[in-house]
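Today's session is about reading a structure prediction critically. Students often jump straight to the picture, but the first step is always the sequence itself: look for stretches that repeat, for charged clusters, for runs of hydrophobic residues. Only then move on to the predicted structure, which in these notes is written as discrete structure tokens rather than atom positions. Here is the chain we will use throughout the hour.
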Amino acid sequence: MKILVTGGCGFIGTNLIELLLGSSSHEISILDNLSAGNTKYLKDVLAAHRLGLSYVDFINGDIRSMSVVKQACKGVHAVVHLAAHAGVVPSVEDPFHDAEVNVWGTLNLLEASRKAGVERFVFASSNAPLGVQSPPMNEERPPRPLSPYGASKLSGEGYCQAFWGSYGLRTV
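Below is the predicted structure for this chain, in token form.
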């Protein structure tokens, strides 16, 4: 199975790749613009498994570019979408950049995945769409994002649901 991991050079991405390398023989592609991640972390994970950077298909690219995303999704069975403009404070400072990456980038990935016949799409959200709520938390409570970051992640969740409902792309 070929898996595309966006944001695969970040903390969560490299840990996920380490788990994938240890559990089975998946083909792994990584799409990362290195704005927050670093190939050093990825190289360390690969070295621990006695593998070189050539073992994975690393694409230095941006999810905001549809042409890059289309190419990255070719021949992929599953997408794990971790790439994001993360954080509440940066989103408040530049809500347009936050939306470009988190909304348009996610929409690009969903559309490219649909057209490429991707079987599964995993979206990494956040607790930010929930806002401040009293425990106990559950999925029945309505979201109340208090920041552009929370709103952009909520939008991603909505697009994932819409692509499953409209096109049958299996999202989670």
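Discussion point for the tutorial: The mean pLDDT is 91.
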